[in-house]
Amino acid sequence: MAELETAGFESDLSxxxxxxxxxxxxxxxxxxxxxxTDRITAALGELGDDVIILGHNYQRREIVEHADFxxxxxxxxxxxxxxxxxxxxxxxxxxMAESADIITDPDQTVLLPSMEASxxxxxxxxxxxxxxxxxxxxxxTDNRNIIPVTYMNSYADLKAFCAEQGGLVCTSSNASDAxxxxxxxxxxxxxxxxxxxxxxxxxxxxxxxxxxTGTDAVAEWDPWDxxxxxxxxVSDAEIILWDGYCQVHERFRVKxxxxxxxxxxxxxxxxxxxxxxxxxxADVVGSTSQICDTIANAEPGETWAIGTEVHLANHLQRWxxxxxxxxxxxxxxxxxxxxxxxxxxxxxxxxxxxxxxxxHNAVEVAPQERDRAATAxxxxxxx
Length: 383
Prior knowledge:
Its EC number is 2.5.1.72. This protein is of the alpha/beta class.
C-alpha cells in the first residue's frame, strides 16, 4: 500500500469514512462551547451514576474535560468493566467501543457519540479480507504453523479470527511478549494490521530489520497489490507483517526530528507505530501511557517533542506546565480525522437523548464473535 503523505491527506482519508448512522439534529449543530458545557453538565446531573464517559488520550479538550477517565483504549475498557454504570459513553473510535462491549457485563451498554469514528488502520485489515489471505499465506509458507497476532487497534471480528487460529491480541506495550508467546506455539507470526509496530517489535526481538539488504526472516504481505501478493516474499519469513499503518504516525519523518531539535533543542518521544527510521532517531519510544509517564517524569524546564496525535501533546502541555511540550511536526500533521468525528455537539446530543430515555449509537458485538474475541484478549492477559 502506498503510504499517504501529509499533503492532500484530508481528501485521501475520506475514503475510509463510514456513513453516519445517526444524523445530528439541526438544533445541535451551532452550539457554543459554553452552551455545550452547561447542557452536558445538566444531562450528567440527571443521569448520575448510570453513565460513565471514557475519553481517549487523542480526544480534544472539549471532550476529555467531561470524561470520568482518560487513557489508552484498553485501559479505558477495563475502567468501564470495573464500573457499575449502565451506559458507557466511549469517546474514541469504533474498535475501542467494541473492545469495551466485549469485556463489560451484558447489562452494560456501550455508546459511541458518532458512528463515523472508524479507525482507518483497523479498516486496512478486516476479517473477511484476512480470512481470504490466510490460505494463501499458509500455502506460501509450506503450511508451517503460523500464529496470528492482531494489534488492539483492530475490529472485533479480526480479534475473533485470531482466536480461532490460535492467536491473540496485543497492545503497543506488550507486542514483544505477544510475539514470544506466539513463537512458543508456532513457527511464524502473522502480525496485523500495523506493519510499523510489527517491524519495530521485530527489531526489539533482535531481528536485523535495519541493514540495507534487510532480512528474509521479516517480510510484508501486501494485500493491496493489483497483481496479487507475491507468495515468495513470505515463504521463509518468521514474521509476516500485514501492509497496514496509522495515518497519523506514518506521517512523521526523521526530518521533523532534526528540525525540532534545531528549533527547540528538544528531546523527542515517539509512538512505536511510527516508521522504523523515526523510532531509531527518537530519544524515547513508547505507548501513549509511556509517553505520558515520560513527560510526567521530565525535569522542569525540559523541552519534549511528542510524536503522536496532537491532542495528547496539547493535554500534556496543560497537565505539565513546567515542561515545554511541542508537537513533533505541527497540528495539521498530527491530527486524527477519525478521533475528530467525536464532536462535542454529538456528545451533547447523545447525553441529552439518554437523559430523555433515548439510546443512540449502541455498539454491540455479536455474541459468538464476542466470545471468540474475548478469548484472544484473555490470552493477552495471560502475558
